Amino acid sequence: MNIKKYFGLSLLLLLINTAMAQSGYTTILQKVKLVFSIDDKGVPTYQVFYGADNFIKSSRLGLKLADNKSMDAGLTLIGVDSSSFDETWTPVLGEVNKIRNRYKQFTAYLKHNATGNLVNIVFRVFEDGIGFRYEFPKQAGLKYFVVTDELTQFNLAGDHKTFWIPGDYDANEYAYTESKMSQIGKASYLEKKAELGVYQVKDFASVQTPLMMKSDKGLYINIHEAALIDYPAMQLHVDTKTFQLSADLAPDVFGNKAHLLAPFHTPWRTIIVSDKAADILMSKTILNLNEPSKMINTSWIKPMKFVGVWWKMQTGNGTWSYTDYPDSTDTNGKLIPNGRHCANTANVKRYIDFASANGIQGVLVEGWNTGWESCCSNWTEDGFDFVTPYPDFNVRELHEYAAGKGVQMIMHNETGSSVTNYERQIDTAFKFMNAFGYTSVKTGYVGKIIPRGEYHDGQWMVNHYLRTVEKAAQYNVMIDIHEPMRPTGLQRTYPNWLANEAARGNEYYAFGKGNPIDHETILPFTRLMGGPMDYTPGIFKLNHYAADTTRKFRSTLCKQLALYVTMYSPLQMAADLPENYETHKDAFKFISDVPVDWDDTKVIAAEPGDYIAIARKGKGTNNWFIGAITDENNRDIKVDLSFLDKNKKYAAIIYADAPGTDWQHDQEKYSINKMILTVKSTLTLHLAKGGGAAVSIIQL
Amino acid sequence: MNIKKYFGLSLLLLLINTAMAQSGYTTILQKVKLVFSIDDKGVPTYQVFYGADNFIKSSRLGLKLADNKSMDAGLTLIGVDSSSFDETWTPVLGEVNKIRNRYKQFTAYLKHNATGNLVNIVFRVFEDGIGFRYEFPKQAGLKYFVVTDELTQFNLAGDHKTFWIPGDYDANEYAYTESKMSQIGKASYLEKKAELGVYQVKDFASVQTPLMMKSDKGLYINIHEAALIDYPAMQLHVDTKTFQLSADLAPDVFGNKAHLLAPFHTPWRTIIVSDKAADILMSKTILNLNEPSKMINTSWIKPMKFVGVWWKMQTGNGTWSYTDYPDSTDTNGKLIPNGRHCANTANVKRYIDFASANGIQGVLVEGWNTGWESCCSNWTEDGFDFVTPYPDFNVRELHEYAAGKGVQMIMHNETGSSVTNYERQIDTAFKFMNAFGYTSVKTGYVGKIIPRGEYHDGQWMVNHYLRTVEKAAQYNVMIDIHEPMRPTGLQRTYPNWLANEAARGNEYYAFGKGNPIDHETILPFTRLMGGPMDYTPGIFKLNHYAADTTRKFRSTLCKQLALYVTMYSPLQMAADLPENYETHKDAFKFISDVPVDWDDTKVIAAEPGDYIAIARKGKGTNNWFIGAITDENNRDIKVDLSFLDKNKKYAAIIYADAPGTDWQHDQEKYSINKMILTVKSTLTLHLAKGGGAAVSIIQL
């Protein structure tokens, strides 16, 4: 670690007069320039440049607080401070094994004239963007306080192309719309929310972050937040005429945003910028704005691929519940089975056998525990316990069977969003995991939140999710959360937090309208900016898989393979049924082979909404894996193999869409070609419409 | 147990036609007569008679349910059923050792014409009143459902004298108003709420139950509820012109009243009636409407008197918190003491010594654990833990010291109404109690509830309180809950639930306006109808006790003694400081001697708002104890001693207001007279204005 204080500059700034202060304080790192000012009404503002491009125009900063304690105007700059920082760190799991965290920091110390209360605004300027946050020091006049609004603005310079989903305090499983910012609005939302069980949109001109934009000049801009702790998630209100974005925090039921105690700091607001799309995907600024790992011993944290008892229920061919009604019992008090329950011992053994035979580390089983009859649309508090199996699921037998085959069972705790119920039982649940050797858990929050009136994105739930991650860590359990707020890089600080859902996954092909054909080319620029996603790729049976036989993926089989590389996650499901993999064992080999943790990553080609091609080097190996996907257009991707070791030969297997195949025609057809590659080889991947390609490159 | 089904009657009723049904079904036990009818719009009604007095006129029944499932009209009577029941049972702790539970039961089976859904209304007719409830059987058309309103009415026959406190979903610590029903309204409420930290009044013409009334004819009527489980507490909206009372259930934040799953039954709505005030106090109907004890082994449940580190803080002479701010630490990270913390080891030992020397079983200590700096007005979630003592409180040393002196330490868990926080830690808290030998706990719910938007009286909190009682039972811990909803007799089913606060206690003399001089003559007719109250009697220093030296009790010292008999509770505090008892050891002897669990009880004289005199026989002894209190009027109470054993002699000690003493003059003066009593003796107790008398009668 290396902190250099710019004492000279700092002292100078402390001495300047107000007129000088209003001209602004500039902090520059390479092409990124931040200018902070405070106007004559005591309103702080900032603007950001990329080279000469003033892509964030002067934008307001400030917070509204309850009880006449607002920090939004009438502020005096009482001091500034500058420093720089440069270190390189190693993530426990990741896309690369070294991350450079280099920034210049600027702090504005502000005092509220009327109350004398203090707030600091801290900026960090990186090579590819900035982060800033509000800090409330310990002070006599501000102990407990309530944030009623955050006034942070992002004033964009033009009507950019925008990849957006509607602002929603409860749901983030929307399909993206690609439009001009001026076209953001209600129509697109209404079309899309129909598939969601729970949604809470208060403002039709709002969008969620990470928000990806591209200017007419070709500048890529991404706005999000980092290190969201004890504060609500932020969405953005969009002024479709002026292109001003303003923070909109998920409220509690009374409209308050955060209940706080000083000292406190908000999450970082992040702006990532580049004239190359690939740089956005490679940015580590959000991770860098998070604190280092809180855990000393991380040896128990392992990346993992898994199969699971899940897709059959999602597609309508089975049930999570064992019976059809909460108290369906016969005259002997025994539960009456509905005959469609998938989480039964025999079926689970089939998954264990498959995993063991195919290099898959884990088996997830949903619907193993009692309570599913009451889930998840009744807004009812009791129902689930997290330790009692249905009568056809033998926990001990399966645990021993799996252990004998070298397979890890993955726990599943669906809460039905009855979060109070889960919190009451959470120690019992984790003790059960420890007792039966579960090393990881998938949690779920389907339905409307209890405490009633709280939202998935509000401060209370943000705190709950993190408490659960900390609880999991306390029991040495890795965690994958479904239906949380969008992640903000906290996997750096809590490396057992392997993945989240928090976006529209592959599952919408099972029960919804499916996903737009370009969906997976947008996700890495949006949702994945905050952290890994449990997207559940790897569906091989792409039509006639659901009870509703009209369903069909907008994907070829090879695109499903490529997603293991293009969608980074240290926890990846092979989501299809074993029987659908057994008939394509040659293609499944890629899923068996592909790592989920990496030493290095190269973005070969990328354009949001169009295509992504990425090469990654498996952790601790000299093997590379490539995934390439495209939207509705077919295209050729030329791969620059210069990342290969100059002195080595590699055996490559290329999984490509078969000639004549595309997402509408013979979508499950593929070709497999083997060849020897060196750094001098040329490799061009042909992607069909809605298709993809996957390549394994194993050092000889 | 003895259930006789009136099969003949039942069959007959099932065969009758609609016209006959509308004329009404009558159920009579002694003077109490219930008539059930259903009108031509399918609206069910009931009325109640006491002899010929139709004191509850025809009153509507029904429930509004969400999703067009209401059960309030358009109902068809599809069957009726009658039965009778007579048993005698023994409470674990109580005012008497045998309770007769005798009633006739009438059930109306109703079907909703539009939906086909079923609801039963079950009535029980006792000698001194009735109970009725709604029952939803398991049925295909009604699984999960939401009660949006209960339409139950109580149409009173006149403008009765009423002892009332305002309807409030969060607070019940009001002083009572004695007025005609027609005078119930806003003015009285506004005058009284100022002292409350948290209150939630939506309807100024509403009152809380137990509601005590007296008709011009001299009929005493009490309306309340029994066995409140998984449902909100009921308050009553008052039509001050027609004297119609209608149920008003505490809502959740969205205005819903209860989220339910059939089969389900509501609490019982109770009406107790007599032409003698003493009968109201002696009624066991609310207890009888509760289920028998759920606990097989109750040997660990013990009645108890206790002293405690509490009054000094209440009166403003000390603090619960050790420091003055949540993170008041010095440069070594140590907490900075404020020098006013009462729960320190030395002070607690003083209480243990006093208890041990004076026959007091327990010592309560408030303010022993960290977190008080954040309590209780900040609506903040974190703060308390329930296992970490302040640095000046040595848990183990005090536990051993108390054990060596034969004294029980009583745990204190103040939640600050951050209920989610308490629920997360509750197992840890109770394990700590078990580890350190705490056999009972006092819990507290000061402040606004978290989950934010829930009320103290709502379904969510009703469920929380009962969960906590069950959790305590699981750990063999007795419980005394402060700031719960009004009790409803559940101490029968959960005998470890020793007491509650749930009303305005003696403590209001410490920090509020004190209590009206007749307050303790009203409480047994109102709040105590549902169960024992932790009123904290026994204050000897009745003026100059508080930091605010203008404070003064509206009581003599002898009235404080009498409260141990007039206010039944198996858990009774001697609330004053040991130093104030040490100077009145002769008077304290009554507190040392008086039991808190009884074999028998006789009401000598009683009139709500005026006076109460009660004699009770100590459990397992032949000793009697009398308490008599009066309002602002002095009076003589002649005691009929016929309850004494004819063949025995008794040594009596009479603690009486000294001549010239009343609540305004020399209120701490008393006389102590010893005499021998037999069944033939005459005993008249003189009570000064605001005074009382206490008598111990020990068999020789």
Describe this structure in words.
- 2 copies of one chain form a homodimer.
- The two termini of chain A are 38 Å apart.
- Chain A has 700 residues and is of the alpha+beta class.
- Helix content of chain A is 18%, strand content 33%.
- In chain A, the strands form 6 sheets. In chain A, strands 1, 7, 8, 9, 10, 13, 14, 16, 17, 21 and 22 form an 11-stranded antiparallel sheet that branches. In chain A, strands 2-3-4-5-12-19-18-15 form an 8-stranded antiparallel sheet.
- Chain A is globular, with a radius of gyration of 26 Å.
- The first copy, chain A, is built from 15 helices and 37 strands.
- Chain A binds chain B through residues 138, 143-144, 252-254, 259, 261, 263, 325-327, 374, 378-381, 420, 423-424, 426-427, 450-454, 460, 463, 467, and chain B through 138, 143-144, 252-254, 259, 261, 263, 325-327, 374, 378-381, 420, 423-424, 426-427, 450-454, 460, 463, 467.
What's this model, at a glance?
The structure is a homodimer of 700-residue chains. Chain A is α+β, with helices and mostly antiparallel strands and 700 residues long.
Set out the fold topology.
Two copies of one chain form a homodimer.
Chain A: E1 3-5, H1 7-15, H2 18-23, E2 25-29, E3 32-38, E4 44-50, E5 53-60, E6 63-65, E7 75-89, E8 99-112, E9 118-126, E10 129-136, E11 144-150, E12 153-156, E13 161-164, E14 177-180, H3 186-193, E15 206-208, E16 211-214, E17 220-226, E18 234-239, E19 244-249, E20 258-261, E21 264-265, E22 268-274, H4 277-282, H5 285-288, E23 304-309, H6 311-314, H7 345-357, E24 362-365, H8 395-404, E25 408-414, H9 419-436, E26 440-444, H10 459-474, E27 478-481, E28 497-500, H11 508-511, H12 519-522, H13 557-566, E29 571-573, H14 578-582, H15 585-593, E30 598-607, E31 611-618, E32 624-630, E33 635-639, E34 650-657, E35 670-677, E36 683-687, E37 692-699
Parallel strand pairs in A: 23-24, 23-29, 24-25, 25-26, 26-27, 27-28
Antiparallel strand pairs in A: 1-7, 2-3, 3-4, 4-5, 5-12, 6-11, 7-8, 8-9, 9-10, 10-21, 10-22, 11-20, 12-19, 13-14, 13-16, 15-18, 16-17, 17-22, 18-19, 30-31, 31-32, 32-37, 33-36, 34-35, 34-37
Helix pairs in contact in A: 7-8, 9-10
